[in-house]
Amino acid sequence: MMPVFELRVVLTVDDFNRVAAFYRDGLGLDPGELWTDKGFGQLFRAGRGTLEIFDEDYAGSVDELEVGERVSGPIRFAFEVPDVQAALKRAVDYRAVVVHEPVLTPWNHLNARIQSPEGLQITLFPVMSAAAD
């Protein structure tokens, strides 16, 4: 097996500056290389990356838990954040639309759902401590 060292997701957007500001300032992603030779491109670092693959039934069940109905498209981002309320406020300050306020999931994450300025659904979540017995 050949290992994969990095996962990159590429978004092509109409308003580069607005969307770059959202991911940099609204979500706090760490900006990396900026390319300006033939248009604009920006790399953002987002901690560890993982890829989740859901079938329609499972995607529907996650949407039901987080939002109450099936709303996300074929791609949804999820970012682990230290404070979901602060991250939610910051994202909204940078033009995110709240799809659903935070909800505690069965896997003990406090998930909030937003829609980014370019229309992508994003889940913001901190991993909560296990409940004391």
Spatial order of strands in the largest sheet: 3-6-5-4
Mean pLDDT: 91
**CATH level 4 superfamily:** 2,3-Dihydroxybiphenyl 1,2-Dioxygenase, domain 1
Structural class: alpha+beta
CATH fold assignment: 2,3-Dihydroxybiphenyl 1,2-Dioxygenase, domain 1
CATH class: Alpha Beta
Count the beta strands: 6
Q: What portion of residues is helical?
A: 10-25%
Shape: globular
Number of domains: 1
List keywords for this structure.
single chain, 133 residues, 2,3-Dihydroxybiphenyl 1,2-Dioxygenase, domain 1, 26% strand
Would you kindly provide a written description of the structure presented here, covering whatever features stand out?
With 133 residues, this protein is of the alpha+beta class. It has a single domain, classed as 2,3-Dihydroxybiphenyl 1,2-Dioxygenase, domain 1, CATH 3.10.180. 24% of the residues lie in helices and 26% in strands. It has 3 helices and 6 strands. The strands form 2 sheets. It has a 4-stranded mixed beta sheet with strand order 3-6-5-4, with helices on one face. Helix 1 packs antiparallel against helix 3. The chain is globular, with a radius of gyration of 16 Å.
